[in-house]
Description:
Layout: H1 2-32, H2 37-44, H3 47-50, H4 55-58, E1 66-69, E2 72-75, H5 80-83, H6 88-95, H7 102-107, H8 110-114, H9 118-123, H10 126-129, H11 154-157, H12 161-164, H13 174-179, H14 182-189, H15 199-203, E3 224-226, E4 236-237, E5 243-247, H16 249-263, H17 269-302, H18 336-357, H19 361-399, H20 404-426
Parallel strand pairs: 3-5
Antiparallel strand pairs: 1-2, 4-5
Amino acid sequence: MVKEFIGIAIIFFFLTGLSLAAQNACVDCHTLVGATKGIVNDWKESKHALNKVTCDKCHVEEDKDSISHNGYLITKTPSSSDCARCHPDRVSQFANGKHSLGWTKMIVAARYKAIPNDKMRASMCEGCHSIGKVYADGGVGKCDSCHTRHVFSKVEAKQPEACETCHMGLDHEQIEYYKKSKHGIIQETNRTSSQAPACITCHMDGGTHDVSQGITIGTVSQGAFISDKSSGNDYVKDSKGIVMRAITQEQFDTNRQKMLSICERCHSSDFARTTLENADEIKVQADKKVGEGITIIQGLYKDGLLDPMPENRPPNPVTGKNLTLTGQQTYSNTSGIEAEFFETYKYALVHSWKGAYHMNPDYAHWYGWAQLNLDLEKIKSQDSTLRRIAALENTTNVKSTPGFETALAFSGIIVSLILVFRKGERK
């Protein structure tokens, strides 16, 4: 019995020694290599190190994307499936949210496909959309998009700045909406206060990694509209021609109640409901304005007056040589009026209602609603100009028709004879 115990102990310590040797090899090598010793320092400051979660626990051996690395078999880039070994609930929540769709939606987008090469795409779109990256082992999600490696700090990920890299810019300035709102001002001036609301307060209630919880028609991209049928993760056109998600009234009510339950922890029920309903109205009215622009451009397309027409320019990578507004619309190889419309629906429209949902009146009005109206006036003016030019060209074409001068002279003679004849009758 004693011999058996000693044997088991020897095996245990042998295996432990191998694991420790492997771990020491990682730390020693990456410390000696000056360019990468920073990752060891970061790991040493992490809770992983405190809880003895060593390199081999994340860079697991048996994986579909394993590689040979200095005598060891490792996973070069751990996926969410690797993280799920210890954090199954968080990975499952993430899979239910819109972040998980970041990569799959990107790779089928016309604007992504229209970028000239992979190097440019990697530095542009993929930097943010990789949060939903799909790995060889089937894992979906790049956890270090928020929990930057190798510290993987929960405290860091909870700060608004953790969201700032991706949620900014012309087409979705969420960080600007938030930072210049009362919520953001409170957070900036008194960050340690329990009163200070961060992005996670509303969008990751209770620590959930489903960032879509509680969002109704103000969801990602161009938002959503209430329909009798849900489109799931697909995009469809609403009655105004804008490509966006469709949600049912039941989905709207469920999500709205969830968001109200969050708001009511700090605000009265009436204030919270009124604020959200006001933003809903801005969303609906702003969509109508964009619908006017769509109608104008569709009219020009029908009359063959876009310059150039879709059939006379390089094809859209997804829709080909068809008129494409919103959704898969690109910002290159297009006409002037369509380019104007792109800025309208992609920037001003979004600022109006996303600014309102984030309680930022200046974005809702001046950057959003006011700019939306100004852009629409420009579109109307371009429509008028294109139609006047077409009318002049038609007149010029008639005048240049062979025999036009002869016909005009003959008509003049006929008119003159009629006038003479009538003059004779009066006498």
